[in-house]
Amino acid sequence: MEKVLIAGRWREANALSSFQAANPANRELLEPQYPVSAWEDCDEALNAAVTASVALRDISGAQIADFLEAYADDIELNAEAIIDMAHAETAYPKETRLAGGEMPRTTNQLRQAAAAARDGSWALPTIDTAAGIRSVYGAIGPVCVFGPNNFPLAFGSASGGDFAAAIAAGNPVIAKANSSHPGTTRLFAECAQRAAEATAMPAGMVQLIYRTSHEDGERLVSDARTGATGYTGSRQAGLKLKQAADLTGKPIYLELSSVNPVAILPGALKEKGAEIAEEFTGSCLLGTGQFCTNPGLVLLLAGESTDRFIQAVTAKFAEAPVGTLLSAGVETSLASNLQVLVDTGAELLVGNTAVDEGRFCYANTLLQVTASQFLADPETMQTEAFGNSSLLLVAESVDELIQVVATLEGNLTGCIYSDTAGADDDAYDQIAGEMRVKVGRLLNDKMPTGVAVSAAMNHGGPFPATGHPAFTAVGIPGALLRFGMLQCYDNVRLHRLPCILKDESPNGTVWRNVDGVWTQANLG
């Protein structure tokens, strides 16, 4: 059985039981066995993380940046082994998805986080010289990161955006591996531990547990020693963690569920309907639809152009090869949630059948519903069928479409396709005004699949897309603020202040708000 990483060393777990990952391409279980840790492992990890937090108070942002950069370098040295393991555990294509997409994104965001840690401007240092008050965002304490099944590298619990942001903000991380790719997470943790040792980081800076009981997971996020939690995964499990964390006042940042509505207006269909049909099909079926920004709800207005669009995408879904799903759980959930939509009144256009190909998969599926059917039970009609599927909604008027948008839950993204000559402008203005408050990121004339690692990106949104609409999980430096606490110093002597708040700038590059003016200069 594989060992856990706790307090700077790999050791045997206090195991309640064990589990194995499965190869989605053939349904076969993979060696080795991984432990389901008892609470004793969590308890020891928390104690080590607290000790690491204390040591990190005396470690500069530049030193943390050195660790993140050394970690990125080590990942690149071991990229082949990581990609091979991730391919075996997810069946994602090596070249196009893992090596060509996720791997460079992973190391890039680690290096972006390093740059933010070294500069320090993310912490928003603010100085009021007249009042003698100074404040800055500082480390919040041990951060637990629960990674998702669909991005083993770029969102991994020991390698992804939440991990990078928490570390850059000065916190140790307890990574809880996703059960779909524990081996991939272990390889990342090995790289992280080597980098931590090479850069003199405290033991417990990065720790790894593969799985716990549900009860111990809830206990972990709500423990007094935990500073905050980052979670990406199922809505059901995430809400249980949130309930536990909320009871003790512990911040938890969630990414849970999103159908990502795409409104395609009549003028746009007349102008380039065939092109949009191609874009939609590609976006919806990319990665077998296992993206958090998958377009799961398409909003249309009744008419001949819409009829042609529906016929075109139905044919494309029927002709497209069926991709591989990540796990038996994803397969079962997709079938179950599609049936919920059908039972609620959605009409089957294509798919919704099991496909027996010796791998985890399900037929490419399109369902259709009228706006009136949707409005009769909007909560159920927004059931997320995570995978290679989508629900097409046809409204009789713009007013009816706006009523639909008004009933939507919070989403990560929302998109509107409109005629470039302006024929759809009135409808766009009405729909966009309603959609804007329902989504974190509003797009025009492009499908939502994919999330750019940009300082301007918001990968977040109102509940249930996330647990808090004011924060992003992607985009540095914004992502760091989730794992910081605002620390204020009132009449504290200069030599006792953090370096970033002293009169002399610690590096000459950090931007500080001094008496209402942002400046890189020293005081005085």
Summarize the structure.
The chain has 524 residues and is α/β, with parallel strands linked by helices. The protein is built from 15 helices and 24 strands.
Proportion of helical residues? 25-40%
- CATH topology label of the largest domain: Aldehyde Dehydrogenase, Chain A, domain 1
- What's the CATH H-level homologous superfamily of the largest domain? Aldehyde Dehydrogenase, Chain A, domain 1
What is the multimeric organization of the chains shown? single chain
Instruction: Give the number of DSSP strands.
Output: 24
Strand order of the largest sheet: 17-18-19-16-15-20-21
Hey, roughly how much beta strand do the residues contain? 15-25%
Low-confidence stretches: none
Can you offer a commentary on this structure?
By secondary structure, this protein is an alpha/beta fold. The chain has two domains: 30-118 and 131-256 and 470-481, 3-Layer(aba) Sandwich (Aldehyde Dehydrogenase, Chain A, domain 1); 261-444, Aldehyde Dehydrogenase, Chain A, domain 2 (3-Layer(aba) Sandwich). It contains 15 helices and 24 strands. The protein has helices at residues 39-56, 61-77, 79-90, 94-119, 161-168, 182-198, 214-222, 235-247, 266-285, 304-319, 328-343, 371-376, 378-381, 398-406, 425-436; strands at residues 4-6, 9-11, 15-19, 22-23, 28-29, 34-37, 126-128, 133-139, 143-146, 173-176, 206-209, 211-212, 228-232, 252-255, 261-264, 297-301, 347-350, 365-370, 389-395, 411-417, 439-444, 484-490, 512-514, 517-519. Strands 17-18-19-16-15-20-21 form a seven-stranded mixed sheet, with helices on both faces. A five-stranded mixed sheet has the order 22-8-7-23-24, with no helix packed on it. β4 (22-23) and β5 (28-29) form a beta hairpin. α2 packs across α6 (182-198), α3 packs across α4 (94-119) and α9 (266-285) packs parallel to α10. The longest helix has 26 residues, at 94-119. The protein is globular. The termini are far apart. The model has no long low-confidence stretch (mean pLDDT 97).
